[in-house]
Structure to design on (158 residues):
């Protein structure tokens, strides 16, 4: 299993990054020179092709508040694309498939964590406990509520 950069459609092979075209060219060069030891190159090409067949590119425009942007920067620094990717991967609860190790993919989310949206300001709220029901407060707008067994937001009883 190789390291694959899905954004650039490249695979790391023997310490260098190669596109599918680069790998194909290397295989052809070996064949033309009579060297028939290119199985590892072909395997890398096949792995990259399979990884790219299992991707879907999203082109979106997202408008967020400055406070939300600051929170996003915590995930990815000044790399907006990387930060958004990490946030999405965290929200859907998985990294790239194991055959597609991508250095831009975050570590798997702790199973005890949940991510919900605040019903008031729609900011993400990270829940770090399995305990339900539990009291939750939005760090952005301060609204409080109770998280039910089904991870649904409920008003606090007066």
């Amino acid at each position: 299993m190789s390291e694959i950069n899905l954004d650039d459609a490249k695979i790391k092979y023997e310490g260098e990054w190669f596109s599918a075209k680069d790998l194909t060219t290397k295989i052809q060069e070996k064949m033309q020179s009579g060297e028939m030891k290119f199985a590892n190159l072909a395997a890398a090409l096949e792995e990259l092709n399979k990884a790219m067949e299992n991707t879907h590119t999203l082109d979106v425009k997202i408008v967020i508040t400055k406070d939300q942007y600051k929170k996003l920067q915590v995930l990815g620094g000044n790399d907006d694309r990387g930060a958004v990717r990490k946030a999405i991967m965290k929200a859907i609860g998985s990294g790239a498939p194991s055959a597609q190790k991508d250095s831009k993919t975050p570590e798997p989310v702790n199973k005890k964590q949940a991510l919900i949206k605040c019903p008031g300001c729609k900011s993400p709220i990270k829940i770090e406990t399995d305990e339900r029901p539990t009291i939750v407060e939005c760090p952005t707008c301060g609204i409080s509520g109770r998280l039910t067994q089904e991870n649904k937001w409920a008003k606090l009883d007066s």
Notes: The beta strands are 4-5, 10-13, 16-19, 114-117, 124-127, 134-137, 144-147, 153-154. Residues 96-111 have pLDDT under 50 and may be disordered. The two ends are 55 Å apart (CA to CA).
